[in-house]
Amino acid sequence: MYSFHNFLCSVTYAATTRWLVPRLQADNQGALVAVFGFEANAVVGDFASYIDDMMPVIESVILTLPRHLDLRNLEAILTHISEDSRVREAKQRMLRRAVSLFRMDVLEWLMQQDMGDSQDVLWRFAYPTQWPESKFLTDLARPHPHDHAMIAFFAQHDVPLTRMLTMAAMARVGLRPLVYLALGDKANMLRWWKSPTSVLWLEHLVTKIGG
């Protein structure tokens, strides 16, 4: 028998979005759980199984919501995923989307969750080519402000920036010292900027731009 669960799993992304957005924007977790939850009258009895099928769509919809709503929805949905492997997969997908949208608030929120090997998940995003919309590869002469935020984020969470970032993209525009400074590594910075005056100027510049 073709169930309602199968029907929802087969609908298009646009149709699912039209159904989800009003309920998520209303912060109406009750409606979601009533349809997909564990109540006796729920249309879909196994919420975890449904989430496995629909998580990519739900996550992408959530990340387009107003910022005061999406984190609450992400947290509520993740509470229904019990297996560590599924949680980690969901977290990886959310990290990927958060990176692509430069959603630093989502990245910080994910790092605060106790969901396993956060550092391992972050490592794959230490490559600038994993930062969609980044200006590193398209406009090296004028780095995008988001790039500085990403550098600071990875430095804060002890994820070393990759050799490709420090030795190629940043070096080509003379910003390698800025990376070293963000990482607190003045010794390496001085190898490239010999003059103490240059160091003072760079520190002033970083302070001025809020880096």
UniProtKB/TrEMBL annotation:
Top-rank taxon, per record: Eukaryota
Protein known as: Uncharacterized protein
Source species: Aphanomyces stellatus
Lineage: Eukaryota, Sar, Stramenopiles, Oomycota, Saprolegniomycetes
